[in-house]
Amino acid sequence: MLASYLNIVRNREKLQRPWAIVQILPQTKGHIIARFANRQDADDHARSLRRYVPNGVFEIIFETLES
């Protein structure tokens, strides 16, 4: 029951905030740093992350329920 509820919450978050910033780490798939409702906010946040963490690798993705 709890797992089903958590899945619903995660899916709702993906629908409301499909743009995500992913930090690419060595030997892993990646780690979602933040989610956004629009691309411009994601771009702005990624720009500041790249400025303050120059060695980090950050990508912006559009995540749907299927991905």
Largest sheet: 3 strands, antiparallel
Distance between the termini: 23 Å
Structure classification: alpha+beta
Order of strands, main sheet, comes to 2-1-3
* Rounded average pLDDT: 86
The DSSP helix count reads 2
Count of DSSP E strands? Answer: 3
Strand content: 25-35%
Shape: globular
Rg, rounded, reads 13 Å
Low-confidence spans: none
Order of helices and strands: HEEHE
Helix content: 40-55%
Number of domains: 1
Note down, in words, how this protein is organized:
The chain has a three-stranded antiparallel β-sheet, sandwiched between helices. The chain has helices at 2-16, 39-52, and strands spanning 19-24, 31-36, 57-62. By secondary structure, it is of the alpha+beta class. A hairpin with a 6-residue loop joins strand 1 and strand 2. It has one domain (1-62). It is 43% helix and 27% strand.
Q: Quick recap of the structure?
A:
This protein is α+β, with helices and mostly antiparallel strands. It has helices at 2-16, 39-52; strands at residues 19-24, 31-36, 57-62.
Quickly list its features:
single chain; 67 residues; alpha+beta; 3-stranded antiparallel β-sheet; 3 strands; 43% helix
Topology of this structure?
Blueprint: H1 2-16, E1 19-24, E2 31-36, H2 39-52, E3 57-62
Antiparallel strand pairs: 1-2, 1-3
